[in-house]
Amino acid sequence: MPGAVDKCASYSDEGRKVRDVPIDEVSDILKVPGQFVWIGLYEPDDALLRKIQEEFGLHDLAIEDAARAHQRPKLEEYGDSIFVVLRTVQCVGGETRFGETHVFVGPRYVVTVGHGDSPPYAQVRERAEKSPRLLAKGPGFVLYAIMDFVVDQYFPVVDACEDRLETLEESVFADGVTRMVTQDIYDLKRELVALKRAVAPLMEVCNRLVRYDVGLVPDEVRLYFRDVYDHVIRINETVDNLRELLTSALEANLSLVSVRQNEVMKQLAAWAAILAVPTAIAGIYGMNFEFMPELHARWGYPLTLAVIAAISGGLYARFKKAGWL
User: Fold this and answer.
1) pLDDT tens, 103-158?
2) Is residue 55 part of a domain?
3) Which of 147, 184, 317, 324 has the fewest Cβ atoms within 10 Å of its own Cβ atom?
4) How far apart, in whole angstroms, are the C-alpha atoms of residue 155 and residue 91?
5) Cα separations in angstroms, 21 against 5, 25, 279
């Protein structure tokens, strides 16, 4: 629920969970040497955020960003702490949902702030607690565990987009191009643009964490961030490839629509030419002239019908051979 504290616990330097901690006791934990605090919040209200700011001395600008959603993925340093914004994504019932997770990391604390469809991080915490050797590396490893979990959530979504693209390609080249196919292509293209906006900035965030200009990340943890960086590059390249294929599919769809329209126009033109023959002949004989020799001929009427049928049949055969009918 909004404004709730998902979890607040303290951990020792050996990577062992000490105990769950109420927010009001965080100050006491920070005074205990050899421990750090990991707090999870979901859409906290201003009062809770201000309390967290007072406990950890967080910067006003970072708190202002954490209070709002719709932030661009980024990494910012404020003194001895860093502030990381992550865009989360989930595939729920075939629908792609985006959210945000803001992470404050300091020498002895990690605070996550979820917004929107941000996934719960209970399984991240459980997995980290089962690896005390890694959790002993401190808040830097916790940041890696969170980012690794967020990035892993992109793979099922990208796989689902690939499946949708294959289905759309089959629909494009199937008989009977419809408007719905074009709309589905645009919907998928819009979704890929949103994925691109979420993934592309993560490359710079991971690149900075891999380098040595972020002091909160121990050297042995940088190898783990390198793995996250590789995953982000893979996802980014896959999204780019899907966007290119989708653009090609859209162009093919529009081309097929144009071809279909040209075929219809050729059919209409062919039938118009065939119908022009009896129309022209009937128009001539429909003129009100008194002296028209054919009007008194015994075989004039059948002969006229025969001429109309012969010319129309010849035109039909010619257009049929040319592929217009």
Assistant:
1) 999 888 999 999 888 778 888 998 999 888 888 888 989 999 999 999 999 999 99
2) yes
3) 317
4) 10
5) 11, 6, 94
DSSP-derived secondary structure for 260-271: HHHHHHHHHHHH
Cβ partners under 8 Å of residue 313, min gap 6: none
Q: Give the tokens for residue 304.
A: 């006229």
pLDDT of 198-222, one tens digit each? 999 999 998 888 876 666 777 888 8
Report the C-alpha gap between 74 and 236 in whole angstroms.
16
Query: Locate tokens 């002993």: which residue?
Result: 136
User: Using CA atoms in the order 94, 95, 96, 98, what is the torsion angle rounded to 10 degrees?
Assistant: -140
Domain final residue pick, 129, 144, 170: 129
Q: What's the total number of domains in the chain?
A: 2
Residues 6+ apart with CB under 8 A from 108: 30, 35, 36, 37, 139
Beta-carbon-side half-sphere exposure of residue 124 (alpha carbons within 13 Å): 22
- For 21, the domain range is 1-129
- Residue 204 · residue 72 · CB < 8 Å: no
pTM for the model stands at 0.78
Per-residue pLDDT reduced to its tens digit, 143-160: 999 999 999 999 999 999
The rounded distance, in Å, linking the Cα atoms of 65 and 57 is 15
Last residue of a domain, one of 129, 162, 195: 129
Domain assignment present for 307: yes
